[in-house]
Amino acid sequence: MGQISRATVPLNVSLAVVAELDDLTVGGLINGCGIAKSSHIYGLFADTVVAYEVVLADGRVVRAKDNEFSELFYAIPWSQGTLGLLVSAEIKLIPIKEYMRLTYTPVKGSLKDLAQGYIDSFAPKDGDQDNPEKVPDFVEGMIYNPSEGVMMTGRYASKEEAKKKGNVINSCGWWFKPWFYQHAQTTLERGEFVEYIPTREYYHRHTRSLYLLGPLEPRPNWEGKLIIPLGDQAWFRFLLGWLMPPKVSLLKATQGEAIRNYYHENHVIQDMLVPLYKVGDALEWVHREMEVYPLWLCPHRLFRLPVKTMIYPEPGFEQHKRQGDTSYAQMFTDVGVYYAPGPILRGEVFDGAEAVRKLEKWLIENHGFQPQYTVSELNEKDFWRMFDASLYEKARRKYGAIGTFTSVYYKSKKGRKSEKEVAEAEKEQAEVETPDAEVE
After folding, report:
1. Strand partners, 268
2. What topology does it adopt in the membrane (predicted)?
């Protein structure tokens, strides 16, 4: 993402969906979740892709789009590279401007009040969700405690507008600047305010506070505060802030099994993709079961596609005409839960694996989805209760992936099981799928 935005932003064009962390890759965002603050308009990252170039199990290179390979085109998102090797993608670009005019709005009250304030920040109550005059270009919410949150809405602005007398420009990308989520928190004392941020710096505003723990998958979390308690101090940012964040590849390479399992038990690194109208319920559930703050809110459209993919809107959603929905897409929200739970911080007992199992059960019961990069305790049966297997399994058979690529369930499994246990499970699965094949 960092390479692409560095090349495109000076030309006043951009990917429609730009994920926050510089090191996130096109392939990873397509095969995984791929959400960003403009997803309430454009959907997930894969929804902005026009075509894929894929190497199939038999060595053929095909161009999958809405053509004879349309089943493959719709099956690739969330498949984690288990249908073929994705080697290139054609992706939409959109016109942009030099700055982001960002409005910070405090919201106070109960968790249900915070949820409604978040919904109202970008979803018109009259249902006019496609009106650019009523819907901002970017949306993000931060819930700092059970009674306070900050909603941020952004609109592209020209350089001429940003530099008008009296406007505040915040170049938040400098290493010595406060971490963005803490800067946003000042809204609770200051009240609503507006500032202009250079567009590329806004895109990657969470990068410096982004420390990856547990499964070490990049999400906009605030774990850096736990690893380096002084990392957000002014003197540290000024002297050593240029070192942050560390490379994700380095963290992955140096993390052992014991450390990974420790974080599974003592930290929460989860994303809950839930229908927009259930955000209040999700916030109350997280507070009751995990007590993790801050929480990150980011909306995204889940489009009604010609075929039923692994993730899909609720049947008949359009008949309810709920706030944020349209006739062709249901609005969802990513509730990001990334930090040490309250019981752990107080020195109390907390069963991380059991908490994840409860979260997964809640998601299944509420038509929610758990991105596959997170820690998961799902068994295979419940995995396919959460996700729809029909198109994915059809594509695996049609394009010869069975016996060559492992199933997405085993590819994405990241629970308390050791790497050895997962490898053994993958071997057993391959033997079941291809009983006559030699499995090394």
Report:
1. 339
2. Single-pass membrane protein
76 falls within a domain: yes
Angle between helices 111-120 and 279-289 (to 10 degrees): 140
Q: What is the pLDDT of residues 360-400, one digit of tens each?
A: 999 999 999 999 888 889 999 999 999 999 999 999 999 99
Q: Is 211 a domain residue?
A: no
Calpha distance 22→4 (Å, rounded): 9
The single-letter code of the amino acid at 219 is: R
Please name the residue ranges forming H helices in 242-389.
248-254, 257-266, 279-289, 317-320, 342-345, 352-365, 380-386
Backbone angles phi, psi at 137, to 5 degrees: -75, -30
200 occurs within a structural domain? no
Give the pLDDT score at 148: 98
pLDDT by residue (tens digit) across 57-107? 999 999 999 899 999 999 999 999 999 999 999 999 999 999 999 999 999
The answer to whether residue 53 sits within a structural domain is yes
Indicate the pTM of the whole model.
0.86
Domain that holds residue 43: 1-95
Instruction: Tell me the helix, strand and coil percentages in the chain, rounded to 5.
Output: 40, 20, 40
The C-alpha atoms of residue 213 and residue 227 are separated, in whole angstroms, by 9
User: How many domains, the chain?
Assistant: 1
Pair of tokens at residue 180 = 């963005």
Of 4-18, 156-170, 340-354, the least confident: 340-354
Q: Which amino acid is at 421?
A: E
User: For strand 295-303 and strand 329-339, is the pairing parallel, antiparallel, or unpaired?
Assistant: antiparallel
CATH of residue 57: 3.30.465.10
Give the Cα separation of 389 and 367 in Å (integer): 15
